[in-house]
């Protein structure tokens, strides 16, 4: 049976490995395209390592940049990045199947399983419908976002250019990429107090980061009671983490002259909200990240580490993993045998998976941090911020990225890639070896990793 | 049966809680004694928070100090610290039973269970013999160490004083306390190149930190084959971690003018060896900790986090916990269903415990770090170093301890206490709720936490 089950792999790769290879090919193509003479403006020739870094950052929808996107790249180069972001965000496999659908071909089991992995889905049923929905939802959301931003920016940039800016930043926000073409590494700091820009970007990145499965579940089951445990959990945690993030950033930056201190209260709130929401996992910044207090840096790092919902464009260990660990520790303190939530018992092997993913991630972050501590010349907080940002494919930086050594760039690029495909690979490996366990009570699955 | 099992508790405390209360009482008494006028030298009145910090540091055998031990305390005050270290190191319960033995009284089940917890022992058999052995072994080891140090130092300090110095530092080293009376927070930096001093201290702290259970097992089973898995694991890991620590510190500090660069090769090796061994968990330093490279700081933090063997004077998550996590992650990568080691299968609930202890510890460290990031004004590496040092009851510091705010002192004191009694409490709570599982293969327990 095991052997049989594996026979869907042609060239002996499991879906997670195929996804990795797909991403690698996409990064390779992107690197080549970005090195073309007309991809960069005059006197901005891109070295191989820089092109590789930029392509990896785009495909893995991270947003860390070694060069300023606006001043370095031509419109062609910028569109290459946007396309890499879009393909990376939709999931390489989803994109492959989308092409197949458009060409009118049937999708065999192999194709379905690949998407299943790409989206970290629980069931392989209705996969084609899901893909159609994902693509449609993505395009509609991005279009609405692009229009709002284009209208807002038409007074600043003039019409055709404002539409281009709207599309680029909408795609970047929905896919949680965090790339911007504002110039001088400014991100959206010019719009820190702009309600329209900040709220449009926030809405796009929250929707994109929450995971397609949640969106689909909400669409299918209009009533709150019918929603799956996974959906309820992700929605609740998104709300809680965004509120906590906002409150902590507001409190910790209130007196900081480098960030909120000199802003009117309305802008203080808007800035705190954006920086409470962005670390999971969009990579924009409306405040100067390098000026955040150490407390805010730590809050941001924690949020970046946790990330968003499974099966979306977000990175990190995922909110569900974090909740399970929280619940497991709480159960321990209360000396309870079982971990339960909202009237459901959580399977024990899921707890083990959550712990494994978390500890593995922390160990990995520490290892990369250790390498950078030797190759780079920067304080620990700046290094750790950069590593966690790469791991969670967040893209925020305290300013280290352009200063990285060639080795540092390679290591961070590797971390972005590992942060993107790693959790899916681990989840896949863990799911495969899981045996059939007998439980007494009703239980329900949650997606983690 | 469960109810019956709990009836050994008089006033409804479990052994772990009784241990905590015992430590708290000891800290309270120590605080009072250290605040006595004749405990400190002229013009060195100790504030309550400083006395509390020092007493906690001594009882929890940590070694972090807010005042310099030699210049602040009278011989009376220093002896109070030494006695607190000795009682803390032997374990409060062990000490209680030792008194009972000396008074010729029988030790009931309750007493035995308390020691079991205090030593994190696996079986309650032969407990009395164990306590006798522990006390005897401790005193003999300390006596030998004291004599060697006294002879070495007789030329520096003259005879009666060199014996006092020998005893103090031998007790401090064997109990992994890291307190010194060299003056000016110098620790043993004056003896960085002194083979006798460095090797004597290293030997004492390795033996003390390895855990009495290992020492007892080695004593009982002279042949390597008969040793328990736990013993073999702890010995092997102690060797590996000490070698790795030495190699990493040597490589990372070789060119550092603040530490090894200006020393002859022999002293470079000796310094690297001491700083590879000390973080688990002795708290002495022969090099200037504040001058270590960031890479060495991270290596030291990792070693401090791992700590020593269970049931000894060491802190940290313990080497066995670390190994289990390493093995679990390796099994995951190799897609193996079972975690095995040296031909033995490791029970799954032990893996879960190891993960729980690790994640809980990391979360706790992060929480305390976050508080200090707000209350203190120091860079992240210095803060994190301090927090992990307190958690692992190590006692190394990059110089922050005397600069801590009152809140910071309270928080670090709390962390030292939690680092000392926390892992035992968690291990106890986890062991209690463990059900009877059915396993197919021979398995063997290992102590963690
Ligand atoms: K991102
Ligand atoms: K110590």
UniProtKB/TrEMBL annotation, chains A, B:
Transmembrane segments annotated in the record for this chain: 21-40, 79-104, 130-151, 195-215, 227-252, 302-329, 350-374, 411-431
Location of this chain's protein in the cell: Cell membrane
UniProt-recorded Gene Ontology molecular function terms: potassium:chloride symporter activity
InterPro entries noted in UniProt: Cat_transpt, TrkH
Chief location of this protein within or outside the cell: membrane
Keyword tags: Cell membrane, Ion transport, Membrane, Potassium, Potassium transport, Transmembrane, Transmembrane helix, Transport
UniProt membrane topology term: Multi-pass membrane protein
GO cellular component: plasma membrane
Pfam families, per the entry: TrkH (PF02386)
NCBIfam families listed in its UniProt record: 2a38
Protein's name according to its UniProt entry: Ktr system potassium transporter B
Protein source organism: Cytobacillus oceanisediminis 2691
């Amino acid at each position: 049976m095991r052997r049989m089950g594996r026979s869907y792999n042609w060239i002996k790769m499991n879906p997670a490995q195929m996804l990795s290879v797909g991403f690698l090919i996409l990064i390779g193509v992107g690197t080549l395209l970005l090195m073309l003479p007309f991809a960069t403006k005059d006197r901005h020739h891109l070295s191989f390592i820089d092109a590789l870094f930029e392509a990896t950052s785009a495909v893995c929808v991270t947003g860390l940049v070694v060069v300023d996107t606006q001043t370095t790249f031509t419109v062609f180069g910028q569109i290459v990045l946007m396309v890499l972001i879009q393909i990376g965000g939709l999931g390489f496999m989803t994109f492959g199947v989308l092409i197949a659908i458009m060409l009118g071909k049937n999708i065999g089991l192999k194709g379905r399983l690949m998407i299943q992995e790409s989206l970290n889905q629980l069931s392989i049923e209705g996969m084609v419908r899901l893909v159609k929905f994902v693509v449609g939802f993505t395009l509609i959301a991005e279009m609405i976002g692009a229009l709002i931003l284009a209208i807002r920016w038409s007074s600043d940039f003039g019409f055709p250019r404002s539409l281009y800016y709207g599309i680029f930043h909408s795609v970047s926000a929905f896919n949680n990429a965090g790339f911007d073409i504002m110039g001088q590494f400014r991100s959206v700091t010019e719009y820190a107090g702009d309600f329209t820009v900040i709220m449009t970007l926030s809405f796009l990145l929250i929707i994109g980061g929450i995971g397609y499965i949640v969106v689909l579940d909400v669409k299918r089951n209009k009533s709150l009671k019918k929603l799956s445990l996974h959906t309820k959990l992700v929605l609740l945690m998104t709300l809680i983490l965004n509120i906590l993030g906002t409150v902590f950033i507001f409190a910790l930056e209130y007196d900081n002259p480098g960030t909120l201190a000199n802003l009117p209260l309305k802008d203080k709130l808007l800035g705190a909200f954006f920086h409470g929401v962005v670390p999971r996992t969009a990579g924009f910044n409306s405040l100067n990240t390098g000026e955040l207090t150490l407390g805010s840096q730590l809050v941001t790092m924690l949020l970046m580490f946790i990330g968003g919902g499974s099966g979306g464009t977000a990175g990190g260990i995922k909110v569900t993993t974090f909740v399970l660990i929280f619940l497991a520790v709480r159960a321990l303190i209360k000396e309870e045998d079982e971990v339960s939530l909202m009237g459901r018992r959580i399977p024990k092997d899921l707890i083990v998976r959550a712990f494994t993913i978390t500890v593995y991630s922390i160990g990995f972050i520490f290892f990369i941090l250790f390498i950078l501590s030797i190759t780079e010349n920067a304080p620990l907080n700046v290094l750790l911020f950069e590593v966690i940002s790469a791991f969670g494919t967040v893209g925020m930086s305290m300013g280290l990225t352009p200063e990285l050594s060639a080795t540092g760039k390679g290591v961070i690029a590797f971390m972005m890639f590992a942060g993107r495909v790693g959790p899916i690979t681990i989840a896949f490996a863990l799911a495969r070896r899981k045996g059939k366990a007998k439980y007494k009570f009703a239980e329900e699955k949650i997606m983690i990793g």
